[in-house]
From TrEMBL:
Keywords: Coiled coil, GTP-binding, Nucleotide-binding. This is GTP binding protein. Residues 305-358 form a coiled coil. One of its GO terms (molecular function) is GTP binding. Residues 14-289 form the Septin-type G domain. InterPro entries: G_SEPTIN_dom, P-loop_NTPase, Septin. One of its GO terms (cellular component) is septin cytoskeleton. Transmembrane segments: none annotated. Belongs to the TRAFAC class TrmE-Era-EngA-EngB-Septin-like GTPase superfamily. Septin GTPase family.
Length: 382
């Protein structure tokens, strides 16, 4: 039996690990969605889970919860990471930073684990594979804070945009809202997870499946913690005076298609993208940042700033000293040359004077006309 098959069997028995994070404004139905997805009350409802008290929620710490679920016969060790919901009237920077920090911390943990000599057998890989970003069902455009946060998050995690509490919009409102949201996402260049496919490489079924899922973006979802009996069967639904909205019914919401995608057909793709692309990008960024600062630190340890200044002064002094030496040499040489020329001049003068006195002695003054020494002596040029 090939080791791969053994590994697959073992992971099937043990279950596959998968982590989903839910992010979005308070009151968009995140807690209800999680409990619907896991079919149990994984997350408790708190007083602050309503929009009026949203500000209180921003101080909550991020605590992941684990739950084992089964999807199409596959056991999944699902980790749910609920995040502090944010509102319109509070300073959201803190909540934003807390979410980004959480994502990066999971990458840091695995980075540290990978560089250990001895691996920790109990190490838990808590990297987030998929982030469901809850857009409030306003029917308008994407809000500035949603654009900003999705931008920030998409570089660290697979972001899937969803419209929470989508049953509050009519069919035509929902259609128009989905279109506007996708226009905004493309306008602001937000790299959300868009069920990527390759027309050349992928088979027709995969291409079609991905195209369908992509066309549903942002997924219109609803949740319910209530079970209603319909045709003798208990289903999760929302009961209204005018009818019943069934969570799993594809005519009522995209819940079942989203669930099927993240926990079934696209679970592996989301995991691979997280591990091979998003984590690798983070790792490279982090290591090059660390190497850069290490080199700077090393240079500054070798030559502290003060030493550097002193050394450059010393170098300048040395240079000046050498230049002075050279100048002194030139000066000496010139002085020597002047001395030599003067000697030559004196010698010439002497010989001329001798010549003059010899001529005078011979009485030949009339031939020369003017005394010889009155003519300028030009043979020495400086
Ligand atoms: N109409 C509608 N209401 C919902 C839905 N999901 C949750 N709610 C309600 O919206 C309110 C806030 O939901 P909650 O899950 O606590 O939102 P959270 O603050 O994002 O966690 C609660 O009163 C829920 O009953 C939904 O799909 N449709
Ligand atoms: Mg909540």
């Amino acid at each position: 039996m090939s080791p791969n098959i053994t590994k697959r069997r073992r992971s099937k028995a043990k279950g596959v690990g998968f982590t989903v994070m839910v992010v979005g404004a308070s009151g968009t139905g995140r807690t209800t969605f999680v409990n619907t997805l896991c079919e149990s009350e994984v997350l408790p409802h708190k007083d602050c889970d309503n929009p009026e008290t949203a500000a209180l929620e921003t101080s909550l710490a991020i605590k992941p919860v684990n739950v084992d679920i089964e999807e199409d016969g596959l056991r999944i060790n699902l980790t749910i990471v609920d995040t502090p919901g944010f509102g319109d009237n509070v300073n959201n920077d803190l909540a934003f930073q807390e979410i980004v920090n959480y994502l990066e911390r999971q990458y840091d943990d695995i980075l540290a684990e990978q560089s250990r000599i001895k691996r920790n057998p109990r190490f838990r890989d808590n990297r987030v594979h998929c982030l469901l970003y809850f857009i409030p069902p306003t029917g308008h455009y994407l809000r500035e804070i949603d654009v900003e946060l999705m931008q920030k998050l998409s570089h660290r995690v697979n972001v899937i945009p969803v419209i929470g509490r989508s049953d509050s919009l009519t069919l035509s409102e929902l259609k128009a809202f989905k279109k506007r949201v996708m226009e905004d996402i493309s306008h602001f260049d937000i790299p959300v997870y868009n069920f990527p496919y390759d027309v050349e490489e992928d088979d027709e079924d995969t291409i079609q499946e991905n195209q369908e899922l992509r066309s549903l973006l942002p997924f219109a979802i609803m949740g319910s913690e209530e079970e209603v009996e319909i045709d003798g069967e208990y289903v999760r639904a929302r009961v209204y005076p005018w009818g019943v909205a069934i969570v799993d019914d594809p005519e009522h919401s995209d819940f079942s298609r989203l669930r099927g995608a993240i926990l079934g057909t696209h679970l592996q793709d989301l995991k691979s993208l997280t591990e091979d692309v998003l984590y690798e990008t983070y790792r490279t960024e982090k290591l090059s940042r660390t190497t850069g600062s290490y080199m700077e630190a090393r240079e500054s340890t070798m030559l502290p700033a003060e030493d550097l200044a002193n050394q450059s002064v010393r170098l300048k002094e040395e240079q000046l000293r050498k230049e002075e030496e050279k100048l002194r040499e030139i000066e000496l040489r010139v002085q020597r040359e002047i001395h030599e020329k003067r000697q030559q001049l004196l010698a010439k003068e002497e010989s001329l004077r001798n010549l003059e006195s010899r001529l005078a002695a011979q009485g030949s003054d009339s031939i020369l006309g003017t005394p010889i020494l009155d003519t300028p002596v030009n043979f020495v040029n400086f």
